[in-house]
Amino acid sequence: MRICLLTPEPGHPLLAATTALLTPRHQVEALDPGTADPAWPDAARLADVYLLKARTPRALALARRLEALGAPVINSAAATELCQDRTRMAELAKTAGLPFAATRTAGSIGELTGPGGLTAADFPLVVKSRHSRRHDLVAKAEDLARLEALARDRPDEPVVVQPFTANSGWDQKLWVIAGQVFAARRRSELAADDRGPALPLAPADLPADRLDLVRRVGEVFRLDVYGVDLLDGAGEPLIVDVNAFPGIRGQAGAPEALAALALRAAEGAATRRTAGAGPPGQSRAGGPARVKA
């Protein structure tokens, strides 16, 4: 099988370990969407499966073209793009009945500080960039003065705001690859000091309903490889973020799960081609699998 990594960082620990598992029997190549030839790809040179670990507009456009040619892409371009828009993310979660933080959208922070905006009763709150990306805005605002300061720093930034929920100061980081859950605890992005390394958290130590919840997120968002951030505290779980194809660093078994998923998706696509079933569309490729030795 030919497996292609759509990423500018093929040496990422998860991808490198997955490549090492696959290369004894399969061909693994990497393609940086930022430097790919615009005339590529064509149907005659398609890999058997593509792993999309990039979120730029160029990467998403490339993934869409691959999908149109019938290649399986994990995760799909549509699912990856949706997870970059926190407004759409919250709307989908709410529609599906997932316990997601209440979310309000504004074209800029200034819209929230002027007439008809927020009142003292709305604080404290969390303000985030609407569009998730590296170095985006995630901050706690205790009062209007803090929000106005953020507005001066990012006057034109579309944002979402969510009520601040009291918690332990830690997030539960749950990652899923084709239904297999990995977990850790990490200091919240709102922590004032260094967040430090993630701490071990065994999925077996989590309540069964929490594991069911994170798997349900994958069904709702049509994701095979994803992360879910939950507030760490008593009471009902609260989802604060969903990420498509996160790093999943230092999780034993994650490279094996990703390699197995890639092979299963590639084999499924080959079977469909042989049967003349046409393109795989955007169905999820979840389910148990093994890496062939």
What does this structure look like?
- This protein has helices spanning 13-22, 57-68, 77-82, 86-95, 110-113, 144-153, 208-221, 254-275; strands at 2-6, 27-31, 49-52, 73-74, 104-106, 125-129, 138-141, 159-163, 170-177, 180-187, 199-200, 225-231, 239-244.
- It is an alpha+beta fold and 293 residues long.
- The chain has 3 domains: 2-77 and 252-275, Rossmann fold, CATH 3.40.50.20; 82-100 and 167-244, D-amino Acid Aminotransferase, Chain A, domain 1 (2-Layer Sandwich), CATH 3.30.470.20; 104-163, Dna Ligase, domain 1 (2-Layer Sandwich), CATH 3.30.1490.
- The strands form 3 sheets. A 5-stranded antiparallel β-sheet has the order 11-10-9-12-13. A 4-stranded parallel β-sheet has the order 2-1-3-4, with helices on both faces.
- Helix 1 (13-22) links the parallel strand 1 (2-6) and strand 2 (27-31).
- Helix 1 (13-22) packs across helix 8.
Q: Per the principal axes of the C-alpha atoms, what is the gross shape?
A: globular
Number of distinct helices: 8
Note the beta-strand portion.
15-25%
Q: Which residues form runs of ≥5 with pLDDT under 50? A: 286-293
The level-1 CATH class of the largest domain? Alpha Beta
Order of helices and strands: EHEEHEHHEHEEHEEEEHEEH
Number of strands: 13
**Count of the domains:** 3
Largest sheet: 5 strands, antiparallel
Q: What's the CATH architecture name of the largest domain?
A: 3-Layer(aba) Sandwich
- The chain-level structural class is alpha+beta
Helix content: 25-40%
Q: Record the strand order, biggest sheet.
A: 11-10-9-12-13
Estimated radius of gyration: 20 Å
